[in-house]
Amino acid sequence: MKRWVGLAVLIVLLLIGSLPGYPQAAPVRIGLVLSFASQPVQSRGVEEGLRLALEEVGNRVAGRTFELYREDDEGSPTVGLSKTRRLVEERRVDFLVGTVWSHVALALVDYLRTRDVIWIIPVATTRLLMTPERATPRMFRLVDTSDQNSFPLGRWVVHKRGHRNLVAIGFDVAAGHDGIGAFEAGVRAAGGRVLRKIFVRVGTVDYAPFLTPANLEGADAVYAWFAGVDAIRFLKQYDAFGWKARLPLYGGRPMVDEAYVSEAGDSALGVIAITPYTPLLDTPESRRFVQAFQRRYGRLPFSYEESGYTTGKLILAGLQAVRGDTSRREELAQALRREAPKIITPAGPLRLDRYNQRIFDQYVVRVERREGQLLNVPIDRIGQVAQVDVWQWWRR
Amino acid sequence: MAVVEAVISAYGLQALNGLVHGTVLFLVAVGLSVGIGVLRIANLAHGSLYLLGGYVAVSVARAVGLWGAGALGGVLASIGAGFALFELLRQSWARTLFAQVLLTVGVLFVAADAFRFVWGGIPTLVAAPAWAQGAVWLGGITVPVYRLILVAFGVGIAGTLWWVVERTHWGALVRAAVDDEEMAQGLGIDVVRIKRWVFGMASGLAGLGGILGGIITGVGPGLDLEMLVSALVVVVVGGVGSVLGTYLAALLVGVLDTVLTGNWPELSIFSLFAVMVAALMLRPGGLVER
Fold first, then answer.
1. B220 closest CB neighbour out of A212, A229, A242
2. C-alpha B149, offset from chain centre
3. Of the candidates A12, A391, B83, B174, which lies 20 to 30 Å from A273 by C-alpha distance?
4. H or E element in which residue A289 lies
5. Are A344 and A82 within 8 A, CB to CB?
6. Contact (CB, 8 A) for B201 and B168
7. Contact (CB<8Å) A259/B122
């Protein structure tokens, strides 16, 4: 009998000893809902930036490790909603990071309002999200809205470049209408005019029909809001039809995205856009981030990577403040909000407005060739732009 | 003179753009039309062959440094893929129209993911050959040289195809194999071999479209479906199986679509289909009926 008891004690001791890092707290769960297949540039950028931030602290904060769950929303609101439900209800994630598309983000608002998960938005830019009607204390958006970039760029082209009459052309979807609307508001605020607004469908193969003398007559500059292959085609064709030499081209933010602008080659050179972050930003935090990212992934980080990285930094700071206790979500959300101003991100100090919308310094950038790669080189700093300051223009 | 220039710049540019658009549509649609009309194969993976041609051309041209090598590689790759697809479609379980559609749509999706895996999700443009770069002034407007060359190419390719099908021995064999398969077999014609080659050539044309058209449209995720839908519209308008009908329909659709969207951009979402509906009402059998 004594032998049996001794053996049992031994077995129990062995079992306890084999448990790693006893006592063990469950990992913090982070769910990613991104468009990995349809928008790989943004999605991968966010994920890699986030992973880098977590790896820098050895994937451990306040005694807790991390577990990441990736889901692809396929760019569809219904798929995005069902994937989000699964992450929240089955995986019981503490943080939800997503989405890329604005229309998918908008589809999640009503559901997530009823849940206590912390929602961090790294890419979707619609101006309709972090508003008094939709924002909750558990929502944080770390990307700028078109109000924060297109509006100031519109003002800038009139004030600094002396353009008075502009023609705007862009996608016939929410993002294009938001971007061009905000740009027009900026132009008008500065005393200029937008003569014509041309909206074309996503996936337009040839822009030649729109780049006619009749459409561009009387303009002294053009503003374009396209993304992806459409942006590349537009840049190429704008150049091929000789317009680039005659009318300066300004672009919405995704127009000259570094991830693909090189595909347009020389046609993209000299195009001016606006962005809150470029790896050429010369601050200690930016330099350190660029170095670390290059060491880890062997390429330059751009604004999406910065979003993902800052997402990670914000999560880490919040967890540290609540000593790793994710059970009380209201307190966790308050901690994130409280800790945010202490974080210096690669794009500068992290500021949030009262709706938890990030406020950025915006930089006017020009596409230039640096070491064989096309990059957005800052040529002017606009300073902080809050979405609240622009809303008055929409009420007119 | 000033009046002439004004007219050219107002209508000439739109007409030229329409012809360019039409030529790209023709290169994609002719293979599809031949597939459906001549071989009775509804190949919905046709748009994938367009992308394959463009992608391979970009990769080979960048690796070798010769535009011609890239173009050759792209065409050969799409012909090869066409042969493989043909073998798949010859299986006994894939012979009904329903099975063909399911199978080729499946191939379309698998190919889209495979392209994404190999070439990434970042779209790219096929470079124009060095001798076709630059622009010329025509009556007050700037026109890229490549666009003029492309329209001429279209005429040449359409003419060659028409000649091969209607005037050569090989074309006669194809027509015989299609008109009466059993009789042709009885005369010692290897019908399967002929069909395989026709399907391969149709696929090669899609690849060529991806190379010549890809200089304007670029290649990237989503373009396979984009081109497939446009090509189907052209096939419906032109009448299946006719090279001449497809060419005329492509130019007609290209010019109308360009004029409509150029003047009313908001219509661009459905202008292509408006043309198709009108054509179906006026000539239900297509422009050129077989």
1. A229
2. 17
3. A391
4. helix A284-297
5. no
6. no
7. yes
